[in-house]
Each structure stands twice: as structure tokens, then as C-alpha cells.
Amino acid sequence: MKYPMFKVHIDVNESLKNLKKVLKSGFLNEGEEVEKFKNSLIEYFNHDNVIPLNSCTSALTLALKLSGVSHGDDVVTTSMTCVATNTPILNLGANVVWADIDSRTGNISPESVANSITSKTKAVICVNWAGNPCDLIKLQKICNDKNIKLIQDAAHSFGSKFKGKHVCHVADFTCYSFQAIKHVTCGDGGALVCNNEEDFYRGKKLKWFGLDREATKNEKGEWKGQRWEVDIIEAGYKFHMNNISAAIGNSQIRHYDRIVDLHKTNARIYDSAIEGNKLITPIKVLPEAKSSHWVYTAILHESVKRDSVLEHLNMQGINAGLVHIPNHNYTCFNASFKTLPETEYFAKHQISIPCGWWINSKDSNFIIDNVINSVNKNRG
Q1: What's the pTM?
Q2: How far apart are CA 73 and CA 272, in angstroms?
Q3: Taking Cα atoms as reference points, which of 374, 245, 356 lies closest to residue 316?
Q4: CATH assignment at residue 113
């Protein structure tokens, strides 16, 4: 389509230069490029405890493991997300417990979370829908009071902020995605940010079989001593990022702010255009939050025929649609089925349109004009 929902941002020349260096070196595993990418994230987030990984799914799995989640435990989570948020719970043998969302925000409801916690609960997962930060202070307080961990799925929210800081400064664990269609991509990749030093150091070991790679290898990936002198106390995973992925990510370091700012700029144009419109309402953003607007999501009035609107927009070359659908309707989650009225309402009336860095002001005005016209024409 002329106006796609997602488009990969890659500085091709810089990326090819980085990849050529990696391929000529003969060392493709975790090494200098990963170290450079990690340091760029540390600077961008202003947070030292960053662990680069091969995916956000791995970050979520590691966060659950660090939270003490194991077979038979409960994890309270949202259904309104990508299935990748919740499959790690099942894969650890734990139980999914659905909390409802606030249909105005698309985000998990703190009140529903509080009502869903039991003595079996080990963690809560929240997702920042489309880059819109959850009510992180309320959620963290609930978790602190119950002595459980808050895991923030920030796959949509690179560049999102809460109370003036990047969102990773609030939750116990924050999981970022650098998958192909995110603000910043490594082809595929992720990162885990830990707010506890002990969790951070344990996480660094668990992401590579149980070995602290920084302690055992130098930045080029060469062993500092003899490998048979190293012991593994706790078995871990193969979740580390490699130099090929990091080389792609490093091509975008100087573009971080520009990418996120362009998403925000287009979202402001949409906000201004639909202000006061009773048929279409942007999702609510908390006063203390700043969304990075991975996509732009709005809620249509009940009288509007949503599917007809989407069909019309698609015919205009606008890739409008539903980014995710509720997880609790998937068969693999049958054991956890629960009625979630706010989630169902949001799912039925939500619409997302592209607002990324590839959309200029002329494009964004064309898109939102078509959205408004289509909504007006498709009232029940």
C-alpha cells in the first residue's frame, strides 16, 4: 500500500559498512558490535542495567525467570497484546491470569490487576499499547505491596516516557523489541532493562547458558582465561544478541531521536484533526506520560461501522487495521478463559493508522482527512 502501517528504518550505507566489518572479522557471535549497541541504549535510556538479547520474547522469558516464575505459578497479564507477550508464561509452565484493560487507553487496569492477584501470583505483565505508557506508578505500588515483580512489555514503546524519564526507570523489568517493524530494528532483537542490580547480574548470566560473558570473554569475544576454569551455577538460555543483528541496529543510533520525533509529530497532527469529534477519539494518554506512537490508535463510536471504515481506507492505499487482537480467545489459552468486557469493547471499536517516520505532513493530513470522511459516511 502507498501508506503502510509499518516500514523498516535502516541506514543502508551505514548498515552495509557495519556488516562488512563483521563478516570480514569472521566473528559473528556476541562481540564488539553488540557492546556498541548496548552502550548506545545505556546512553539513550540513561540507565546502566541494559542486557541486549535476541528478541523481546527472550527478554520477557528472562524477566519471568528472574521474577521467580515457575511451574504452577500465576502471572497476571493483559489479553490485549501480541501473543508473544503471553506465550512465555505457558512455556515456563505457569498459569495465565487475565486482568481487564481500560478501554480508553488500551492498557491493563490497575484495579483489575489488584483484584486478580492471589497467593500464587509471582508477577504482573503490563503492555504499553501502541507506545502509550501504562499507569506505571499504580502498578508498581500494587506489585511492591504484594512483594511480586512488575514486568513491562515495552515492545511498542521505544522512546516513550513517564514523568520525564524513559519508561524503563519505573518497572522492575522492562522488555524492548528491535524486531523488524519496531521504531528501531536489528532485523530481530530485544533488550531487558533491570532496576535491581542483583537481577541485572543474574540476568547477564542466564542470557548465555549461565555464564557471565563479560567476566569470561573480552569485547571481541575471546576467552580471558581457560574455559574449563569456569563454573556454571545456574543453567541459563541462549538469548544473547549477535554481531550481525547489532551491526544493523548500530546503523540507526544517530537516528533514534529523529525516528521517534517523526512518529510523535504525525500523531499530533491526527490529535488536532479529530479534537472534539464525537465519532472518533484518540486513546487516552496519562498527563505524566509521553507516547512514542508506534502506531496511532483511536476508538470509534459504537454507531460507526468499523470494518467498513477499514475497507474504505485500505482502498485509498492506507494500511489501517487492527495491530493485535485479544489473546484470551486463542485456543492455547483455553484454560485461562475469562470474560473481559473492557478488552472486548476496545477490540471491537479500535482502529490503528500509520503515523511512522515515513509519513510526512502532507501524507498525514491525507490519511486523517480520509479517516474522518470515512467515519462520517459509515455511521449506523
Answers
A1: 0.96
A2: 46
A3: 374
A4: 3.40.640.10
Q: Which domain holds residue 23?
A: 12-253
Split at pLDDT 50, 70, 90, the class of 228 is: low
Q: How far apart are the first and last CA of the chain?
A: 28
Instruction: State the total domains in the chain.
Output: 2
pLDDT digits (tens, 9 = 90+) for 23-39: 999 989 999 999 999 99
Cα–Cα dist 53/34, whole Å: 9
**Location of C-alpha cell 492471589:** 118
Whole-angstrom distance, CA of residue 5 vs CA of residue 294: 9
Mark out the alpha helices in the chain (DSSP H runs). Answer: 12-25, 32-45, 56-66, 87-91, 110-116, 136-146, 197-206, 213-216, 243-250, 256-274, 306-315, 341-349, 361-377
What are the backbone angles phi and psi of residue 326, rounded to the nearest 5°? -60, 135
Q: Which residue, of 207, 228, 253, is where some domain finishes?
A: 253
Q: Which domain-ending residue is among 227, 253, 279? A: 253
Q: Which alpha helices (DSSP H) does 159-305 contain, by range? A: 197-206, 213-216, 243-250, 256-274
- Sign of the Cα torsion 330, 331, 337, 339 reads positive
Distance of CA 226 to the CA centre of its chain: 39
Cell numbers placing 46: 540513561
Using one digit for the tens of pLDDT, what is the confidence trace for 165-175? Answer: 999 999 999 99
